[in-house]
Design a protein that fits this description.
303 residues; four-stranded parallel sheet; three-stranded parallel sheet; 10 strands
């Protein structure tokens, strides 16, 4: 269902964190592991951090629901002597964490926009579907995409909306835009979640899907392949979760760590999607994952 796939990225990210922790526990590097899920509620996340600090911990891995709002939680942890590693979503002040693990959101938004510009020959009308307002990945991708569009005066951005990384919301917004902007020539979507919803809106309307962007979300890939679309999808790899654990362990061992660790993307294009696509994976799967994690979560896809 759309409700389940909208949470799939978080589930896969946590699976990678779990995989890294299990490996560390097997090697005697981790005793206790506590996990909380704020479900994108900044107030709950702040409360969760406060609770974890009260319970006692040696290092905190934090994916900020909203960079500015959750920033004081990172500050409180650091001031308490607990190093903070941010994952996927950063806090506002770099001084309030020791390292940030993520994909390169700016490059992601930029290359997605460059694809749209190239496919339109530098001339046309574009709509933009972003993730969650205030979340650092969404804001960085949008900022860098808009820099590309602004540098191409033949491109007009008709409207931008936040779809909360939800296929359901992406579909509803796009269905409205199809009527409101019948002359849309391209759809810039910062992720495959709302991108899949946008594709479905066009299919339901019986209209051809214009050039569209997404990432390594199986539903997006399936709709792309089954409908022979013109699309582009750099991944925002859930491997970040595993890497965040490795950096957290290095911090505890006193090993110097990079201030910003970037995970290189898997880039799906019209030329290679046929080779990358595994039709046995379910719609909620995030493809650019550690193979062992994919196999553990979806063993039937590899039989």
């Amino acid at each position: 269902s759309n409700a389940s796939v909208s949470n799939s990225w978080r589930v896969m990210m946590v699976a990678h964190v779990d995989y890294g922790v299990e490996e560390a526990q097997a090697n005697g590097l981790v005793d206790n592991y506590r996990y909380t899920d704020a479900n994108d509620d900044p107030a709950k996340q702040i409360s969760d951090v406060e609770d974890l600090l009260t319970q006692g911990c040696d290092v905190l891995i934090l994916s900020a629901a909203a960079s500015d709002v959750v920033d004081p939680a990172g500050q409180a942890a650091m001031e308490a002597g607990i190093p903070v590693v941010t994952l996927d979503r950063d806090v506002a002040d770099p001084a309030h964490r020791v390292a940030y693990v993520a994909g390169d959101n700016c490059v992601m938004g930029k290359t997605q926009a460059e694809f749209i510009v190239e496919q339109l020959g530098g001339e046309g009308n574009v709509v933009e579907l972003s993730g969650i307002a205030g979340a650092s990945p969404a804001e960085e991708r949008l900022r860098c995409a808009n820099e590309v569009f602004a540098a191409n005066p033949g491109i007009t951005v008709l409207e931008q909306a936040y779809a909360n990384w939800s296929p359901t919301e992406g579909q509803a917004i796009m269905a409205n835009w199809i009527t409101k902007y019948p002359d849309s020539d391209g759809v810039w979507s910062d992720a495959g979640l709302q991108g899949a919803g946008a594709i479905q809106a066009y299919l339901d309307a019986g209209l051809p899907v214009p050039p569209i962007t997404g990432e390594d979300f199986q539903m997006f890939w399936r709709l792309w392949v089954e409908n022979d679309l013109n699309a582009f999808a750099p991944s925002f790899s859930t491997r970040q979760g595993y890497q965040a654990v490795q950096i957290a362990l290095d911090v505890l061992k006193g090993v110097p760590v990079p201030e910003h660790f970037i995970i290189d993307p898997l880039v799906a294009t019209n030329d290679n999607i046929g080779d990358l696509y595994n039709p046995k994976l379910p719609d909620e799967a995030i493809v650019d994952a550690i193979p062992e994690v994919l196999l553990k979560m979806y063993p039937e896809a590899f039989e």
